[in-house]
Write a sequence for this structure.
């Protein structure tokens, strides 16, 4: 059981470049989400999904796209990277039943120059 | 609007002593969950403890306990017998029953001194 995995661990982009952050979970969780963590601000929700084919916006969705074609995968796309998107990105998953633990991936540290 | 407030940017505690990390929250939903996560310098988010709004007793998990005062809307984390490995960032979070969004506080950096 690998839990929540994220790739890459580190990435440097130039302004305007695009890329996809990968997230996968093997726990058959319905709910998956992406957060960004900036210094002094805790984690903020970017997008989330409650199941395959269903996505919705969180607190800070601008500049990011997501899709959920399978239960396991929830990629985050940056279409045109900006320096303001320099951050640490966390993917998380949990079951929809109950209200307990949300499992986090190890994070991706992204720098946009 | 900020729903989770952690007023202590940094805290120091002597090894083997107890420490309380403060968290207050704001919600009009009668059903919600409160969470504490630990983030060591390695960066991963580690779940520590959960408290449901309807739980009659304060949650405990080993050396961690949650001092839940519903009327005051506070959910303070108490760490007993601090260890050097407890040095980390600690985040309080809340999820309302009618909302999939988990909101986090800004965090408290705890340093345990030998």
């Amino acid at each position: 059981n690998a839990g929540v995995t994220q790739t890459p661990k580190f990435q440097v982009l130039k302004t305007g470049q695009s890329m996809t952050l990968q997230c996968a979970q093997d726990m058959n969780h319905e709910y998956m989400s992406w957060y960004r963590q900036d210094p002094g601000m805790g984690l903020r929700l970017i997008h989330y999904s409650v199941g395959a084919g269903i996505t919705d916006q969180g607190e800070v969705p601008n500049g990011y796209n997501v899709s959920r074609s399978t239960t396991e995968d929830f990629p985050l796309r940056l279409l045109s990277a900006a320096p303001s998107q320099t951050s640490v990105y966390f993917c998380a998953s949990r079951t929809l039943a109950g209200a307990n633990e949300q499992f986090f991936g190890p994070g991706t540290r992204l720098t946009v120059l | 609007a900020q729903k989770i407030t952690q007023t202590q940017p940094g805290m120091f505690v002597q090894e083997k002593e107890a420490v309380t990390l403060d968290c207050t929250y704001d919600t009009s939903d009668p059903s919600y969950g409160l969470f504490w996560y630990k983030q060591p310098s390695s960066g991963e988010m580690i779940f520590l403890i959960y408290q449901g709004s309807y739980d009659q007793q304060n949650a405990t998990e080993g050396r961690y306990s949650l001092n839940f005062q519903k009327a005051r809307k506070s959910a303070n984390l108490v760490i007993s017998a601090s260890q050097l490995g407890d040095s980390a960032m600690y985040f309080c979070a809340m999820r309302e029953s009618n909302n999939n969004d988990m909101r986090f506080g800004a965090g408290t950096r705890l340093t345990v001194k030998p």
